[in-house]
Amino acid sequence: MRLTNLHIKNFRNYEELSVDFHKNVVIFLGENAQGKTNLLESIYALALTRSPRTNNEQELIQWEKEQAFVKGNVQKKYTKLPLELFLAKKGRKTKINHIEQKKLSSYIGQLNVILFAPEDLSLVKGSPQVRRKFLDIEIGQIDPVYLYESVQYQKTLKQRNLYLKQLAEHKQTDELYLDILSEQLIEHGSKMLFARQQFVKRLEYWANQLHQKISQSKEHLTVMYRSSVTCKDWSDEQTVKDAFAQEIAKVKSKERLRQITLVGPHRDDLSFFINKKDVQTFGSQGQQRTTALSVKLAEIDLIKEETGEYPVLLLDDVMSELDDARQLHLLETIEGKIQTFLTTTTLKQVKDKMSVEPEIFYINQGQLEGEDV
């Protein structure tokens, strides 16, 4: 899978830009605050219809403009697809092959991307919310059903929490409606739990392969999905659903008291272990960074395994955050098999370590100043 060109208008600090990509490694070179990250953000938005940096879509539209758009052509093994994302104050619109898509799940997955930025190194040490977001984004790209269930789950969760609060304040008295919301929550949430467990198993396999390579086989990496639902058999979807229903029933009185849903995918987390030692609590900073690097890079092979095509990799100034050994490992992992877009303020950390000749563009104040090789 490759992005062969990009056309953006009124996006962040870019009035309009159109560029073709010919090589597998593309470098956006320039000083800070010139628009390098905005270019990566536009590719990410084209793939996932959202920004990794903000939940407010209006921030993506250039100041005093009514709308923005991002367009690009995706080259796959057997087909070439034009993708379009339009952003306006009234909302967003997506098109595949010039045909508008009504459902998010029918659009996402046409262009698979993995973003690796300095903040992703905090995947291990960051909050559980960071890791849940990581799971939802990555599984959603390869599994449209999961994406649908996740959206429905969040809607139901919001409704249920509001109703619990109304019951506590005696603004509502209909217990039957709470039971209906609970059934919907279990229906959507159990499918999410099942999918997450299966995904984490495959993620662990690929991440451990990479981690052992970096540590020269001295460290074994284990990734564990920590659920608020206790289940004896995570490999059977019906058993997961039954277990979720039992947990909801157990905490019913507590939820009424606290006015919030206490169990479900929105309360879950990931744990990482090196040689059975909890990396989040006892690992060194180096081990935590290596774990984050291994987990992020594991997505490359996992997505290839699931979809038959490698994703596009976006590296936002991440090289400056890694030591020489991890830089080398990163470049060895991606070279020759995956299209990579990389931002940097200097070529010293990148070009000398590459065995392939990259395509280099210089970015200055929202302008692409030609190719500088």
TrEMBL record:
Name the record gives this protein: DNA replication and repair protein RecF
Listed GO MF terms: ATP binding; single-stranded DNA binding
Keyword DNA-binding: yes
GO BP terms in the entry: DNA replication; DNA synthesis involved in DNA repair; double-strand break repair; SOS response
Gene Ontology CC annotations of this record: cytoplasm
Classification via InterPro entries: DNA-binding_RecF (IPR001238), DNA-binding_RecF_CS (IPR018078), P-loop_NTPase (IPR027417), RecF/RecN/SMC_N (IPR003395), RecF_2 (IPR042174)
Gene that specifies this protein: recF
HAMAP family linked to this entry: RecF (MF_00365)
Phylogenetic classification of the source organism: Bacteria, Bacillati, Bacillota, Bacilli, Lactobacillales
Family recorded in the similarity comment: Belongs to the RecF family.
